[in-house]
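Data availability (excerpt). The following record was deposited with the supplementary files.
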Amino acid sequence: MKEYLIETPVASIIFAFTIVTSIYTFSNHHLFGKFMLHPYSVSKGQRLYTLLTSGIIHRDWGHLLFNMLTFYFFGFALESILASLSPWGHLQFALLYVLGLVLSDVRTVFKERENYNYYSLGASGAISAVLFSFIMFQPKTMLGIFFVIPMPAWLFAFLYLGYCIWASKNARDGINHDAHFYGALFGLIFTIVLYPSIIQHFISQFS
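Predicted structure:
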């Protein structure tokens, strides 16, 4: 535990804080409703704080477990990578996560701005940003899709983006696929802006 706090302080805080707030709001329905993203209100300049608070709560135990497992496997590793590359690595990781959380919902706010009954929650946008940033550094890492199916990270990235585009238009599962897509896209752009040489690094992994 001490090693995590010293080597990956930002990821440790995000991980612990998200678990605590999510579990707490499972039994506090007033706070749960108050923290959810409501595009209709946000588009009118109200409840802007939900762009952040919606990312620290989750729908249920399954939603929380899936997101936190993904963050655990890739968030801590990514912060370590960034910290090894720059003295500002921990701050870069914090910016990636927070900006990914907020910016991944911008499309949703615009798209659902007239839908009073639409709400969204969860850290998936930010975690997608973290995952895709990690993939830029380690494209050949083998991922366990659904923790079972082995697949190289670069292939997963292409399939994931394609699925998000399809699901955003066709799926009726109550999942904010736009947040997943734009979070992933932001993760790629943010990483390339910080480390332009990452493109050459990515390509060199296949040569």
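Summary of structural features: Residues 61-85 form the longest helix (25 residues).
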